[in-house]
Amino acid sequence: EGAGDACGPAAAQAREQPLLEPVLPAPAEEQNGTDSAKAPKVNCEERNTTGMERFTLQILNVSQDLMEFLNPNSSDCTLVLFYTPWCRFSASLAPHFNSLPRAFPTLRFLALDASQHSSLSTRFGTVAVPNILLFQGAKPMARFNHTDRTLETLKDFIFNQTGIEAKSDVAVTEEDWEGPLPSVLTKGIDWLLLFSVLFLASFVLYATVRTESIRWLIPGQEHEHQE
Questions:
Q1: Between the CA of residue 15 and those of 12, 87, 196, 205, what are the distances in Å?
Q2: 94-125 pLDDT, tens per residue?
Q3: Where is this region: Disordered (predicted)?
Q4: pTM of the predicted structure, to 2 decimals
């Protein structure tokens, strides 16, 4: 199941990967229980939205550290997406994730390129993307593990974990397809191929120079050049 709905070298073992941080898996069968639906598993402190007009997610750049955006001394909740711009599953999720801040204005939403934050990806067991984690403060509390990644399934996940209901009038719009999270695949650089080409070119150059040097050492060759 993991290998078919995620991008990564070990997607099939994604859920078997040992985590360095405790993350509850939030199994799908819990959604069917009425008791678990009534009692939220994470008691989130909702932020004050007074005076705020625009609700959008923030994408971390390569120099920004996720832990600087998470307050370990608070009980507010943040939904964090690990993605890569070259993964088609990340691209198809993008417009749905872009719409979430409007559905849950009292929560925070962050996204980061897993290929640019490899240490964080390892720390939180991200061996395949997209990977969505619900944090309370700086602690990961639950992982979204459904293969159907839509606005509705994401809203259900947040409600089942926090008890916070989504705004009913929010839908995926054309603006959500445009950003801030990219829904168009980005062609990544194949560093292995680039390295191989550069290595081959260097080897050919070295072999050529070496051959010219050897010609000077062959008896009779140096006389031709002297004449």
A1: 8, 19, 33, 47
A2: 999 999 999 999 999 999 998 888 777 667 77
A3: 1-38
A4: 0.67
- The span from the CA of 158 to the CA of 8, in Å, is 25
Distance (Å, whole) CA 19 – CA 145 = 15
Q: How far apart are CA 161 and CA 165, in angstroms?
A: 11
Q: Is 151 helix (H, G, I), strand (E, B) or coil?
A: helix
Cα distance between residue 49 and residue 22, in whole Å: 30
Tally Cβ neighbours within 10 Å of residue 27: 9
Domains of the chain, by residue range, sit at: 58-178
Q: How far apart are CA 161 and CA 25, in angstroms?
A: 11
Q: Which CATH number fits domain 58-178: 3.40.30.10, 3.40.50.410, 3.90.79.10, 3.30.360.10?
A: 3.40.30.10
Q: To 10 degrees, the CA torsion angle through 67, 27, 127, 105?
A: -40
Tell me the three state secondary structure of residue 135: strand
Q: How far apart are CA 106 and CA 104, in angstroms?
A: 6
CB-based contacts of 175, cutoff 8 Å, min separation 6: 98
161-179 burial, b at 16+ Cβ within 10 Å, e below that, comes to: bbebebeeebebeeebbee
Which of 8, 19, 102 lies closest to 55 in space, CA to CA?
Answer: 102
Looking at residue 39, what DSSP letter applies?
A: S
Q: Scan for tokens 């050049």, then name that residue.
A: 225
